[in-house]
Each structure stands twice: as C-alpha cells, then as structure tokens.
Specification:
homodimer, alpha+beta, Glutaredoxin, Glutathione S-transferase Yfyf (Class Pi), Chain A, domain 2, four-stranded mixed β-sheet, disordered C terminus
Chain lengths: ~290, ~290
C-alpha cells in the first residue's frame, strides 16, 4: 500500500515532508488538505489528525502527524533513504570515533517473500550516529519555539494572515521579527559554525536542514525590503539557503512553485495598491491646490 | 567520566531530565544553573548551551541541550534504561505485529574490556518499536507549541514572572490559559484515549509522559482556584498525573520539593497581601465613616 501524505504546499512543514519523499524516491500519494478552505477541520481529516494540522501521513494501518516525527519515521522506515538525512543506515563510521571505542556495523537490506526486511547488526559504545542523531534532535526541538515561532508570527502578520482569515497585526509582526531575527542569529553563529555547507558542520543535508530551510523559505512572500532587512545581516544563512536549494533541486523548485505564485500575486496587489495610493495622493494634491 | 546534568529544578524540562536519570539509575552529577541569578547567561554556561537554557548535559566530550533530545539520547546511550521509556531495547514484540511481518529481535548487553558494549540484532519490516517511537516523537513535538507554550505563558504571567524579573501580565495570562486548556483537552480526549494508564494507551510511562507531566506540575505554584478551574474539567488528566507521580516516586517528590517550597512561599505572600488588603479596606471603611 502506498504511503499517503496529507499536505498543503503553502505549509512549511508540508513542503519539507513532500520534498523529503521526492528526493528519497519514496513511492507516495500526495493528498491536498486545503488550508484556505479550512479542510484541516473536516471530520475525515480530524480522524487522522485531531490537532487539525498538516502534514499527516498514513502508512498502511499506521498514521502519524507532526512533521519532525514524520521525517524521522520516514528516514527509519524506508531503507532507501540516504544515510545523511538522519544517520540511520548502519555503516562503518569514518570519523569522530573515540579511541576507546570499538565499532562494527554491518547493514544488509534484503527482500524476504514480498516484504522488505531490514537486517542490521551493530556493536558500539556511544556510536557516532547516536551523537549525530542527538544533535539533529536538538536542532529540531530548538526549531519549534524559535525559528518557527518567529517566522510564522512575522509572515502571518505582514502578509499571509488574510488568506487564512486572520487580520494583519503590526505589533505581533514586530514581535515575530524580533524572535525570527534572534533565531537567524543563532543559526548563523552556532548551528552553521564550522566549515560544512549545512547545519551542524555537515557536508550533506539532514532532516534538520530541510525543516529549517522550508521554514525560512516562507519569507519569499513578504515585501522585498522586509526580507532584505531580516536576511541581509546573515551571510552564512544566505549561503546555506543556496546550498540547501541546490541539494534539493529539482524538487525544491517544484514544491515551492505555489509559494512563488503567491509571492507574484501579493506583489501585483501591492503595486496596484501603491499606484492607487499615488493616484489618490495626486488627486488630493490637485484638490488642495484648487 | 560521570554524566553531568546542568539544571535548575525550577525549570520543568530540567526536572524531567533529573527524574529520568534518577529513576534509571544513571550515575550523574547535577550542576545547578540558578535561573533566578541569571547563571544561564554566564560565559561558562553559554559555552555549553549558547541558547542559555537549561537543561544541558555533558557526557564525556559530548554535550547536548534541548530536553527532549537529551531524554532520547540518555534512553539510547545508557543500556540500563527500561525499554518502556523510549522503546529502545531490542526484544521480542508481543503485540501489534501485522500478520505479514516476521519479526525477530535479540538483544545482548555485555561488557567488553572496561567499556560498555551494546550488541543488537534485529530483523523487521516496520517494527513495532518504530511505530511506538514515532508516536512518542509526535507527542514530544506537539508539546512544544501547545502544552509548554500555554503552561509557561500562564504560570509566568500569574505567578512566577517576578522571580525571573518579569512583570505579571493578565492579558498574556488569559491567552496562556486558553492555549493550556486547549492542550489539556487534547491530552484528555486524544493522547490519553484507550485504557492504558499513560499517554498513547501505554501501561508504563515513556519519556513523553515524563516531559508533559513535569510541565503540568508547574501549575502547583498558581492559586488553588485557578488550578481547579483549569484542571478540574480534565478527569483523565488528573488520573494520569497521579499515575505518573506514583510511577516516578520517590524521585518525583524529591525533585519537586523546591516547587512545593515556592508554592508555600507564594501562598504565604498571598495570605499576607490579602490580610493587608482587608486591613486597608477596613481602614478605608472606617475612614469613610469618620
């Protein structure tokens, strides 16, 4: 039975899960839950996720929500997923093995009857992958109350709110920007420290890169000067965004297409509003001179 | 080298990690980072956790922060940890094995030289423990923006704020209570569904129970009528709190001692303030009659 992914590509965590499936060749069916139509509150969807949030998945008889939990599950459950995403495949560890450790890892993936059988054998004391996974968990946990909290608060209150039936709120936007900027500072100075191209000094992306990157991509829909003000001071973050775009192409472009369309529409609306402002301002000026 | 746990028992996630270590017989040193003295901002602590939050751990040369990531790491790194906390030990799975699966798990924990060696061998297709772990991750991820967000916002704004140098804010407290109550509704109706004594229908606690339980325990410091109003409608939550208290005793009592002392002190302050109000009100009344 194919994996089912319930998602709306306007949601950052949905995009992360969809890109993850595509890039890892997971056979899945994407089922749209239209947030603008409030389909996440339908009884059918609430049966899958009573929290009324996307994404959610159904894999056979098993269902799951919360995007970080989903990414970890997919990385563990689908043997074709590349090791760097969650350090799940068992293999010889080339670096950072404390000298007191002896480490042997053999991984054999085979088919038995018509079912996938994952066979693994490992001997370790604090294996390297345990450390790496722990650091990935740490980034993902940090994400919730920092980058995600700030980015969503800012973007909803300067741009996307009305599409979700919420008013724009400059005061909330200012608080969102403060939290978002502090989070970007930490990514720049801590999570991206070292010479690696990705978070935690890695040279290949993990699920943490994918999750945080999709979060930041929502800044595409805000005004250019706002985005420049917020992202401008963070040169390493900008480079990391480019690295992650390149590492996830062509799926990045396809999955983010909807976001770029929304950006275009919002820009048109702004330009219409601006020209209308100019016209009325001209009229006012003329009127005042009469 | 002993595990070091940097914690302040006034912090809910710190309490969860300390209880976890104690209940699982992990040999550790607890190092107090006094939040009231802002020690989390000291250069020494920021070296361990640049986010200036407790808890954080140091295990040999490895350091880690974010309590959920720490709990998962400890469950994986210390072989003595009971299986139910994170479904990490490899063993025969007695239930919920889809009929098409063949499942064999052998776990051997042994010592080699002076180091701990964990040897595991498992063959599985979507093993039961993968499902269970995924559900634990789902609860923990959900916790961040729901129960934790609501509980901290409420408790800081009705009781604890001044101890951290923050003002009490009734408007923020009202919003916190709304989010907290909604989270308790979800625990009552969803996470505690089934006949199990713990979250996810289990009969033994997991790290998710410990984390959410320690969060809710902070309600001890708010006014009795507030706590009754918030917890009163949630009978299953109340029973689950009792179950988790009993499952974590005597460590629960010892680690929460500081919270009960703060509760006592706040109650004394309130009663002094109330009697002072009465006196001044009496005086006012007397004055008005003069």
């Amino acid at each position: 039975m194919r994996l089912k992914v319930y998602a709306d590509r306007m949601s950052e965590p949905s995009r992360a899960v969809v890109i993850f499936c595509k890039i890892n060749g997971i056979d899945f069916e994407e089922i749209k839950v239209d947030l603008a139509k409030r389909q996440q509150y339908s009884p059918e969807f609430k049966e899958l996720n009573p929290m009324s949030k996307v994404p959610a998945i159904v894999d056979g008889k098993f269902n799951l929500f919360e995007s970080h939990a989903i990414l970890i599950y997919l990385a563990c459950a689908f043997p074709g997923v590349a090791d760097h995403w969650y350090v799940i495949a068992h293999q010889f560890i080339p670096d950072y093995v404390p000298c007191y450790m002896k480490l042997l890892k053999i991984c054999v993936i085979s088919w038995m009857q018509d079912n996938m059988i994952l066979t693994s054998f490992h001997i370790s004391r604090y294996p390297n992958d345990l450390f790496k996974r722990a650091k990935i968990h740490s980034v993902l946990d940090w994400h919730h109350s920092n980058l995600r909290y700030g980015a969503v608060k800012f973007v909803q209150n300067v741009a996307l709110g009305p599409a979700l039936g919420l008013p724009l709120n400059p005061e909330a936007a200012a608080l969102g920007e403060k939290i978002l900027s502090a989070a970007l500072d930490k990514i720049e100075s801590f999570w991206l420290k070292g010479n690696g191209k990705f978070l935690l000094g890695s040279n290949q992306p993990s699920i943490a890169d994918l999750s945080l990157f999709c979060e930041i991509m929502q800044l595409e829909v805000v005004d250019e000067k706002d985005r420049t003000r917020i992202l401008g001071p963070h040169k390493k973050v900008q480079q990391w965004i480019e690295n992650t775009k390149n590492a996830t192409r062509p799926h990045f472009d396809e999955v983010h297409k909807i976001l770029f369309k929304v950006k275009e529409r919002l820009q048109q609306q702004q330009s219409v509003a601006a020209s209308s402002d100019n016209t009325s301002s001209t009229k006012t000026t003329l009127h005042s001179k009469m």
